[in-house]
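Hey, can you fold this?
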Amino acid sequence: MSKECDIVKDLSVNYVDNNLRDNSKTFIEEHLEKCTECRKYVEEMTIDLQKDNSFKEKDEDINILKKINKKIKSKKILIIILSVLLGLIVLYSSLVFINYYIMSQNPNMEVFLEENISIDDKEKIEYKIKNTKDIEYNFVSKEDALNKLKENFGENERFLNGFNNQNNPLPESYVITGSPESIEDLEISFGKMEGIKKVQCNLYQNPYTLFNIKLITNFTKIKNNLF
């Protein structure tokens, strides 16, 4: 093997990749015309490099496909998550307004009395309630209100142990249920009467608030029954 052959073999990679200047390229081509061994060497190298380039292209294609598949999977997961969240929101809103519709068909009202209400004012309120059609009512004493609150507190009832009939802060009230028309009529009348501290009617409350209160109340009852 001549020195010229060594030079050609050293430059063969750049020659195959077409990275040589014209004079170097001419030198190699002239040598290949007269040297069988170098010509065979360059041909084999050309085949090997073509195979390597082919494998590289395939690897690049595979990597591109992997990236595309990864993006598609990520989008699918995101779409599934958003669909589930949207479904839950729709379900929650549907339950809220179904609950509100049911409550609006048979609304209830709670009339809280002033602490020092006079007997005369209390009798007027009760007279108005008794003479209103299509309703049912129940008087809730301060003691009954405290007992109900303790029941709702469940296992946390101990926080209310300091309260008794002497220092009970809860007011007396009337709980009234009936037709929407009767409840609305009573609310207007109570707005003009003395001795009433507050009137709370579910007809005019936020549907989401009503549903959440009902949800929490039912959850507390189930928890108390289980434990």
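Oh, and this one too while you're at it.
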Amino acid sequence: MSDNPSAAPPSNGPSFLAHLTADLAVPFAQAEVACSDLPVIEYRHGNSPVFYPIKMPGLGRVGNVILSGMMPLGSPSLAALQQQVAAGRPAGTTIAIDLLDENGNRAATWNLNNAWPTQVDTEDPQPGASTFLATVRVSFEQLAIVAPPR
């Protein structure tokens, strides 16, 4: 990896487009999948002559997806999403998050099955600014990554 910061791709636009509802697609600069793992269950049968534990996979755990980026002031889509979260758990749907390349074309899609937003955080904008930082946490049950055909 190069130590030259100018070698990094420019971040002048959103890198992700999240389709949170059927009529709400929100651009984000960052998307992060929190820890997902499959714990190991170790057990030993009561009268087994073997002293080593038997291992088997446990229940899988998935983390949340954390989306963050700059939003324009007065964004009605984000306000509607905040109202849904404040009202209680929205119905679980499939949420698609498109990874965009440097030209704004879809490079891959994350499909989150039975997903719903759990938290929407916003920071107060700076005086004179036209954007503010927003962070959306999405809980889901299954993640499928789909790459477009080449």
